[in-house]
């Protein structure tokens, strides 16, 4: 199915009502494709606002991005999050970027149960300004 022709709202509705696991995965993949660059920028902005600067040499950035993307675009998580989206209250893109912001902040605050150290300190040990 040509999901690229669907509006964001139609994609969200499809994800919420379809029973097909493959269709759900395809819709989530389309949303990711549409918004991954904007999500990348938002994640970077949140990290940088906490004093966690990007560097090509720092492979931890990829770890952060992958973990946050999994929390947002994994089919069940995305479906659950979409239930809170209201088209009459705003633009899908703004809603999604707010979700990305909150997930990034939440990720920074999480503590690794094995080490007892926050994710932020694990990946950015020299950081002084985390919150």
From TrEMBL:
The name this protein carries in UniProt is Uncharacterized protein
Q: Which organism is it from?
A: Vecturithrix granuli
